[in-house]
Amino acid sequence: MTSDSEDKTTEQPPRTKPASDDPPTVVTPSAETPWQRSRGRRISVHLLVIFATIFTILAVFANWTRQQLLDTPPWTKASSELIANPAIRDQVAIYLVDQLYTNVDVPAEIKSVLPKDLQPLAPVAAAGARDLITQAANAALEQPAVQSIWTDVNRLAHEELVKVIDGGNSYVSTTNGDITVNLGLILNKVAANVGLPSNIVAKIPVTAGQVTVVQSNELKQVQQAAKALKASSVILSVLAFLFFVFAVALAAGRRANTLVEVGAGMIVAGLAVVLLRGAAGDAIVNALVTDLSLQPAADAAWEIESTLLEQLATQVIVIGVMLIIAGLLGGPAKASKAVRGWFAPVLNGYPEASYVGVALLVLLFLIWSPIPAASRASFIIIFIILVFLGLYMLRRETLREFPGSAGASGDSLRAGTAKIGAIFSRAGAAVKETTSKAAHDVKERTASHKEKTTASTGGGESQKMADLERLVALRDSGALTDEEFAAEKAKILAGGS
Questions:
Q1: Other Cβ atoms closer than 10 A to 406
Q2: Are 333 and 286 in contact (CB under 8 A)?
Q3: In sequence order, what DSSP letters do the residues of 315-344 get, joined into one string?
Q4: How far apart are CA 93 and CA 111, in angstroms?
Q5: Cα-based angle 277, 163, 300 (whole degrees, multiple of 5)
Q6: In degrees rounded to 5, what are phi and psi of residue 195?
Q7: pTM for this model (two decimals)
Q8: What pLDDT does 274 receive?
C-alpha cells in the first residue's frame, strides 16, 4: 500500500501538447497608408497648406514693399515711368511753376520791364503768364534731357535715402534729422527752357523745389520700419516655403495630390494679391487725395508703383501651375500613369539623356525669364533643386511601375532608328532616281539640239554638194545641155532645190 501511495505521489513529467496541423498565424502589415490611418495627419496637412497660402500672400506684399521702397533699381524704373505719364507730368509742372512763383517775385520782374503807364498791369500779366509758363514747363518735362535729370535725381536720392548718411549731398541731406529730395536742378532747367531771363533764373534759391521725405522726429521710426520690413519679407517667404514642404512631406501616401493642393494654394494666393491690389489702390487714393483734380495723377502713380506687385503675384501663379502639373504627372490617376508610361522608356533606359534634356529646358526657362524671380540667385538655386528632385522621383516611379521598359526602350529606340534610317534611305534613292532621270532628259535634249544645229549648218552644205554631183552626171550623160546645167547650178548655189 505504501508502494501504491508512493507511485501516486511520484511527480510525472509534463506532457507536451500534440503539434497542431494548422499553419502558424502570420501577421500581415496593413495596406493602409499613413495618410489613411491618421486623421490628425490629414488635418495637419490641410492646415499647413492653408497657413502657407496666407504666408504667401503676406510675403508677396512684404517683398513688394521692400523692393519698391528700399531697392534702387525698382525705384528708379518707377520714377522714369512716373514722369513719362501725362497726368503726373502735368502735376509736376504745376508744382514747379508754383515753386517758381513762390521763390521769385514774377509780378515785380514783369513790372520792371513794362512802361510806366502799363506797370499797374504787371500782376494781371503775371497771372496770365502763369498758364503759359505751366504749358511751357510741361513741354520741357517731355524732353529726354529733363527726364534724364529727373531719373538721375531720383536714383541718387534713393541711394542716399537708403544709406541715410549724415550730411548727405546736393540731392539728399539728413541735416537736423530731416531727409529731403532736392528738385532745384529740374526747376532751374525748366525755367531756362521756358525762356525766362538768366537774371530771373539766378534768383531762384537753392532751397527751392525741396521735398521733405522724412522729418527728424520720424527718422528713427523709419529706420526701424525698414529693418522690420527686410526681416519680415525674408521670414514670411521662408515660412511659406517650409509650410508647403512640410505639407508634402507629411502626406505620406498622398504626396502627389498634396502637391496639386499646394499649387492650387499658390494660385489662390496670387489671385488674392491681384484682387487686393485693386481694392488697396482705391482705398489709398481716396484716403490720401481729396482734390478730384489730383485723382487721375494719383491713380496713375498707384498703377505704376504697384506694377511690381502684379508681377510678383503673376510669378506665384506661374509657380503654382507648374506644381499642379508636377503633381498630376506623379499622381495615381490612369491618365497620369499613361503619361508616365510614355516617358518610361527614356527615363529608365537613358537617365543621362533625361537629365541633360531637363537641364536644357531649365536653361531655356531661365534665359526666357518670364517671371521676375527667374533672375534672382535664390530662386534659381531652389528652382533647379526642385526640378531635378522631381525628375528623380518621377524616374523612381517609372522604374517601379514599368520595370521592363528599360530593356524595351533600347529595342524600341533601335527599331525607331532603323525605321528612320530606312526612311532616309528611301528618300535618298528617290532623290537619286529623280536626279538621274533629270540628267538623262537634259542629255537627250542636248543631243537633239546638237543634231538640229548640225542639220541647219553642215547638213545644208552636204545637200548642195549632192545636187551638184547629180547635175554633173546628168550633163555628162547628155541629159542636160550646158545652158541648162549652168542655170540649175546657179539655182543650187543660190539655195534652191
A1: 17
A2: no
A3: HHHHHHHHHHHHHHHTSSSHHHHHHHHHHH
A4: 24
A5: 25
A6: 95, 15
A7: 0.63
A8: 94
> Quick one: which of 125, 104, 124, 122 has its CA closest to 190?
104
Integer distance in angstroms from the first to the last C-alpha of the chain? 172
The helix/strand/coil state of 16 is: coil
Cell triple for 347: 527615363
pLDDT of residue 166: 41
The region that residue 302 occupies, defined by phi over 0 for left and psi between -120 and 50 for alpha, beta otherwise, is alpha
Phi-psi region of 208 (alpha: psi -120 to 50; beta: other; left: phi over 0): beta
According to the model, what pLDDT value does residue 43 have?
Answer: 92
Task: Give the DSSP letter of residue 210.
Answer: E
Rounded-to-integer distance, Cα 410 and Cα 414, Å:
6
Query: What is the DSSP annotation of 242-303?
Result: HHHHHHHHH-TT-HHHHHHHHHHHHHHHHHHHHHHHHHHHHHHHHHH---GGGHHHHHHHHH
3-state secondary structure of 41: helix
H or E element in which residue 116 lies: none
Report the distance separating Cα 27 and Cα 256, nearest Å. Answer: 30
**Is residue 214 classed as helix, strand or coil in its secondary structure?**
strand
What region, left, alpha or beta, does residue 253 occupy, with left being phi > 0 and alpha being psi -120 to 50 degrees? Answer: left
The C-alpha cell at 80 is 522714369
**How far is Cα 140 from Cα 193, in angstroms, rounded to an integer?**
6
Residues in CB range of 342: below 8 A, 6 or more apart: none
**Side-chain half-sphere exposure of 233, counting CA atoms within 13 A:** 17
Kind and range of the H or E run holding 373: none
Other residues' Cβ atoms within 10 Å of the Cβ of residue 294: 16
Which grid coordinates belong to 43? Answer: 488635418
Contact 26, 270 (CB under 8 A): no
Q: What is the DSSP string of 134-172?
A: HHHHHHHHTSHHHHHHHHHHHHHHHHHHHHT-SS--SSE
Name the CA radius of gyration of the chain, rounded: 47
How many Å apart are CA 128 and CA 139, to the nearest integer?
A: 18
Tell me how far apart the alpha carbons of residues 321 and 303 are, in angstroms, rounded to a whole number: 26
Q: Strand 172-173: give its sheet, edge to edge.
A: 172-173, 179-182, 210-214
Listed as ranges, residues in the chain with pLDDT below 50 are 1-11, 16, 19-20, 22, 25-29, 165-168
Reduced to 3 states (helix: H, G, I; strand: E, B; else coil), residue 94 is helix
Q: Which three cell numbers stand for residue 20?
A: 497542431
Handedness of CA 95, 97, 98, 104 (dihedral sign): positive
Residues whose CB is less than 8 angstroms from the CB of residue 214 and which lie 6 or more positions away in sequence, other chains included? 178, 179, 222
